């Protein structure tokens, strides 16, 4: 697997790659991951991830300073490094998780060697603009270039996948790539602990990168407008370049006692935060799937999410929570209030619906589908979108 972001990075693409690799190792596959070094120490060694040990080929990387933690492998050395790894390992298949540097380099070299390529797209170039420092006048040209890069890199693969049908449609719209598979990132719901105990507090939870496209400022302003009688508290788990600005916003709105920035937490602390929450909020406008929302649903949480990109695949308005108009503070506050004031029967209905709707995203189905793609078999995309009639059954 080739990826431009991997643990200890915390984002959807990194988490998906880590979980997919670990799941394949558990099934007896010999998995090697090529990723940027997390520091200036680089080389090949074994690392534990998700309870499994796998081989990491950590390439020399440098920090991308417009971003608060992102590191990248050097583009002008990737072909040489990719060729070296492939000639040494002679793998059956290369799975590219990115089209910028490492995934692109591995795809180029794998194609030359006749190695089967599967590619997954996790990125919309538009979401990278805030970290490029490119003047606005040149941003359209940059986006067009990135989509051309994506088309060339992903076009080398025998099979191209994205996490949702909406993301697949988006990719087909902006490139000449067709027959893109929609394969959920998958989740092991058994790792999460739902709670149906009566709530004694109104706890709102957000998990994710603290960056512009997540629109966390909209969530904070919505919390500020809630009825004080609700005594709602917001916990924000994650880190990112917008943290300082959002902390200043919290101070301006007088929410110091009601909003807590938890930063990065352990997996155990994260799972406990889900269990303790009353409702999960996802105001982002750029989710290609949202693993955090899937984790929340696996913990039987109602979700209030922006009606944008792939979130409607997971959140069915009025069923396991609510969708709100992206960027609309008043609408978000209204939808949060509906959940926070719900009686026991209504709240439990939301929670049970989350469990039903997340069931088709079981990680075992995802692993089965990717194994078939690795073997070069034709696959039927797993059905993960449950309609209202199915959900009511």
Automatic annotation (TrEMBL):
Family annotation (InterPro entries): Glyco_trans_1 (IPR001296), Glyco_trans_4-like_N (IPR028098), Glycosyltransferase_grp1 (IPR050194)
Keyword Transferase: yes
UniProt-recorded Gene Ontology molecular function terms: glycosyltransferase activity
BP term (GO), one: carbohydrate derivative biosynthetic process
Occurrences of domain Glycosyltransferase subfamily 4-like N-terminal (ranges): 10-191
Domain Glycosyl transferase family: 197-353
Superkingdom of this protein's organism: Bacteria
Keywords (A to Z) from UniProt: Glycosyltransferase, Transferase
Any matching Pfam family: Glycos_transf_1
Protein name: D-inositol 3-phosphate glycosyltransferase
Biological source species: Mycetocola lacteus
